[in-house]
Design goal:
It is a single chain. By secondary structure, the chain is α+β, with helices and mostly antiparallel strands. The protein has a single domain (about 5-130), classed as Gcn5-related N-acetyltransferase (GNAT) (Aminopeptidase, 3-Layer(aba) Sandwich), CATH 3.40.630. The protein contains four helices and five strands, in the order E-H-H-E-E-E-H-E-H. It has helices at about 15-25, 35-40, 95-110, 125-130, and strands at about 5-10, 50-55, 60-75, 80-85, 115. A hairpin with a 4-residue loop joins strand 2 and strand 3 (about 60-75). The protein is globular and about 50 Å long. The relative contact order is 0.16. Bound molecules: coenzyme A. Coenzyme A binds next to strand 4, helix 3 and helix 4.
Length: about 150
């Protein structure tokens, strides 16, 4: 598949079911996160930074959603969540292309640095980010849930 057949655009509400199915296939769903609530929240804050990659698919050349990245910029750092490429489209440089699109948009907003959260056990994703120029930093991520989803 040629990369030119792919299209990066902003997530639209009609993409929700396909995005959640993709996240399920990619193993990025967590029981404590309701993906539909995550999508609804993103619609209220910088929705233009929620990107998807589509490819023409099927006889009617319908769009298939093949990748997602939910990015944001808080005025100090940028972040990316729900980065996922469909399993049958991985290792084709789509993740690299999508992260380049995210970085381009964050840079245009004046974002000086991007942080990504990767489980330390997820060695393959660590390799992916290293290839893109990201370096591990000495910091522990702490979290506090403000709104339980379940
Ligand atoms: C991580 C992920 C987004 C990478 O997307 P991708 O389209 O397959 O990656 P690319 O093809 O753009 O790869 C970019 C570079 O990373 C490397 N890379 C990608 N996946 C890799 C892997 N599993 N192991 C080692 N290196 C990998 C590629 O070799 C490539 O290097 P190169 O440009 O020097 O050849 C994809 O594997 C994925 O969706 N994984 C499941 C969901 C997930 O874990 N998301 C991250 C949550 S933190």
């Amino acid at each position: 598949m040629s990369l030119s057949a792919l299209h990066v655009r902003v997530f639209q509400p009609e993409d929700a079911a396909a995005a959640v199915a993709l996240w399920r296939d990619c193993g990025v769903l967590r029981p404590w996160n309701d993906p539909y609530k995550d999508i609804a929240r993103k619609a209220t804050v910088q929705p233009e930074l929620f990107l998807v990659v589509t490819a023409a698919a099927g006889p009617a050349a319908q769009e298939a959603l093949v990748a997602t990245a939910m990015a944001g910029y808080d005025g100090h750092r940028g972040s990316v969540y729900y980065l996922a490429v469909a399993p049958d489209r991985q290792r084709l440089a789509i993740g690299r292309m999508l992260m380049a699109a995210v970085e381009e948009r964050l840079l245009a907003l004046g974002c000086p640095k991007l942080h990504v959260l990767v489980r330390s056990s997820n060695l393959q994703v660590l390799d992916f980010y290293r290839k893109l120029g990201y370096q591990a930093e000495e910091a522990l991520c702490l979290g506090k849930r403000l709104i339980p989803d379940q």
